[in-house]
Design goal:
By secondary structure, this protein is mainly α. The protein is built from 32 helices and five strands. 47% of the residues are buried.
Length: 685
Amino acid sequence: MANNYDVFLSYRHKPLDGEITQKTFNFLERYKLPKSLLEQGARPIRRVFRDTEELAVSRILTHTIDEALRSADYLVIICSPYTPESEWVDREVMTFTEMGKADHIFPLLVSGSPEQSFTRTLKTIPDIMDRVMDVRCEGDDPKQIMKKAQSELLRVAAAVAGVSADRMRKADRMRSSRRIVTRGVTAAAVFAAVALGSAGLWNQAAQFRQQAREAQEASMTILQELTYDLPSHLADLPGTYARLADLLQTNADQITDILELNGSEPSVRYEIGANYSKLATAYGTIGHLEDAETAIRRAIHEYEASNDGSDRSRRYLAEAHNDLGSVLSSAGRYNEAETEFSHALVLQGAVADGEAALAQYTANLGIDLLAQGKTDEGTDTLARALALVPPEGWASPGNAALALRQYASGLQQQFRFDEAEEACSQSIALLERTLEPGQVNAELLKAMLQLASCRSDAGHYDQALQFYSKLLPLAEAFAESDSENRLHQEMYAEALNDCAYVQNLQGDLSGAAGHYLQAAAIYKALSDRSGAAPDIANYSIAAINAADNEFTAGNYARSSLLFRAGLKSYAAVCEELGDFHTASYLSYRAFTRLVFENDVYGAEQDAWDALQMYSSVLTYGYCGTMCMYAGDLDLADELFTTLAQAGAAEPVKQLFDALSAYGMPHEHMPAVLDIISTYENLSSD
């Protein structure tokens, strides 16, 4: 088949199973076959398939999954006590067995016993226990599981390569040992000189040591140039970060080799830490968040080893903990990120003349708190960061602009639209002063998007659409300038999604549909690449937005399918991402319960829970609507009045129109529209 896969990963969509599947996918796709085997004609793993969504409620595998399964050479089953609950995993095992490839099935046992964790069909394969890769560990710790799995998964790599598992492990060990053997040559020469005890040989040994020191110094000079100068020159060039990550990884290995020859001098430890920090930045930029986390944790380890209690040591450690917080936040692990940002603040607070960095780390903490749904705390923290150092005094104008933009986001969530728009305008002005005329970067685009969002939430839709007409071409060109850079793609998807929202409110349903689907496709590609919860959430929201648009357009069957697909993927990650996403998920689920399941009181409970977690135009509007249908009219009027006072009631009017067209008008709708009209007239006066 055209889309042939070397390995198909089958698993149950549960937290542990999904995390191990993602890590297994990364390991197999990135595993480089030892050169000795390649030279003998062994075949490396080129393509691995894993489905990122639960299958629909149907007894037929989707075309994409069925085609991938049938084209795969080997099947790896991630087995835990949840696995037997999935008829789809069992169906995939059955299909592989029916094709005569039962001997190409490898169970990866991550938890539970085989009796508890194997599907019905898997238990019937006669020699299946011979291929079990047992990676269980106490406490089901994913890191410990993967530590064991890296050795076990060489069996799969060996099967694909067409060599024995023992031969694969031997070649892998030999590759890892080469640098140790190379370093041992010099040590052996010195040892021989000592053993012979000859004065002449002692002199030669001294010469060897001097040569080694000179070689070390020359190597360090070259490596420092690679670590500091070259990455700085290349980082802004399109398409370079993937290659740069490989370069820096090799560089990190080489500096580590030098460290082992030279002992544990603090200066060398510092060089290793600096290199791993840059490596983390490169991996983070291309979306390899696990690799970024590993690199920055290694940097922290090296900085701690070289810590002499000086301001410099504290400063480097603070920066590394801040960077780790940024990586964790990007992966949606906001609580862990909060801890790292707080640690960075403690360290930086003890550094003399460190106010600029202190403001930056305070801002990062505020941004993380906003992401957790802690709107008031996050907004106050960002205000404190901006008060520490005026935006013009920050070391990086881009970081100051980011703090202003996120501060605007917090104000916007508090319905303080005028203040939010002012903060956005300050952010844009600050950035434009640092750029050439007509030049854009990611932070400028984000600030412009935030300003457009403020205008639409405040009900200024014409202004917002005019702004989006300028934004979309800029964002598209930005995405095309570097297709490997995830940030560039995210920016374009966000612009498409936000523009579609305003188009939907203005009645351009066809234009909105096209933009929503474009955004969903970009987010889907990003989530497939990273497996990160925020990317999955972005895809889910784009799909749900498309569903809402289809409902407004009267395409109810398509709307129902899109709602259910978006909610299914969103359900898997929303709680992990905090109150904002959980509240959004509950709001959307409330709508589907009301419209497609006729569960009025279940819908009201979902919407009320959402509003208790997080206040936004979405949660107020949906909660008011669900309360109205459940008969809590006083509460509904109070919620709608809040939106009307803020000038953000247009989505409610459109929702009422859509529900009426669907055949669900409510007798209280005219009274609500009168409330909205009253405040609109007051605003116009």
